[in-house]
Amino acid sequence: MKGRFAPSPTGIMHLGNVMCALLSWLSAKSKGGTWVLRIEDLDPDRSRRQFADRLMRDLEWLGLKWDEGPYFQSERHERYAVALERLCKMDLVYPCFCTRADIMATQAPHESDGRIVYAGTCRARTYNKEDMERAALRLKVPDREIAFTDGHYGPQRLNLSRHCGDFVIRRKDGAWAYQLAVVVDDAEMGITEVVRGSDLLLSSPQQIYLAELLGYPLPSFIHLPLLCNAQGQRLSKRDKSLDMEALRANFTAEEIIGRLAFLTGLKPDNAPCTAEQLLPLFSWDKLPPERQIGL
Ligand SMILES: [Zn+2]
């Protein structure tokens, strides 16, 4: 059994990131498994090495030691290129020259959650090899439902052509899209359990589809409720009072772990404890069923 924590080094970790790290660590360790640390630094504009160093120091301070890694996605380009080549050979990839304005012009106004469904505008265009190098690359998706069972939220099904349409697997600037990188990495690192925030629940079918195409075994998925601030908004890097900088200044590691154990239902009280001490108490069944956990 192998789990992983895969943060993006675009800022200092906040309490929500720590909750995700803690629960994936507990799940792996309580089953005698391996916990992998992978730094998802594919976005060159937003990723910073200093944040990667900082989050590793914070994980160590919290007592969440990884067994394998850190792997850096920015050092794994060739692996993603091999996967892309395989998808191209299946005739499933094409260049897209649409601007954001082009895509917005094709959107039906009913998409209330703000997601964008690509209408397949460039699918039928003819293109040459050079076009593949200078445009965003999209993966053709089928008009069928993809079903899976989430370890926390239960059965899910989604039709990719209606949910997102053909999606980008390499950006116009050459940066690999999250969806492709995460699938290649989870497979190559032998990850069997993916634990992460419920904001990524609906991206799982894209990854399942990609994994199927590439012939990879599927990990199990467990999505977590998101921690929310006093205003009911999910925590973000803007909530400075709940980032590791502020938390370390005001609390011990045991106080932070104890508080998270209470919020996630692992313990009936807030009493300080170590991650290690939570191992015998850990069970996914204790996690609240809601999509959000208020602080
Ligand atoms: Zn297009």
Explain what this protein looks like in three dimensions.
This protein is of the alpha/beta class and 295 residues long. It has 2 domains: 181 residues, HUPs (Rossmann fold, 3-Layer(aba) Sandwich), CATH 3.40.50.620; 102 residues, Glutamyl-tRNA Synthetase, Domain 3 (Glutamyl-tRNA Synthetase, domain 3), CATH 3.90.800. The chain is built from 11 helices and 12 strands. It has a 3-stranded parallel sheet, covered by helices on one side. Strand 2, helix 2 and strand 3 form a beta-alpha-beta unit. Helix 3 packs across helix 7. The structure holds zinc ion.
CATH fold annotation of the largest domain: Rossmann fold
What is the number of domains? 2
CATH architecture of the largest domain: 3-Layer(aba) Sandwich
* Percent range for β-strand residues: 15-25%
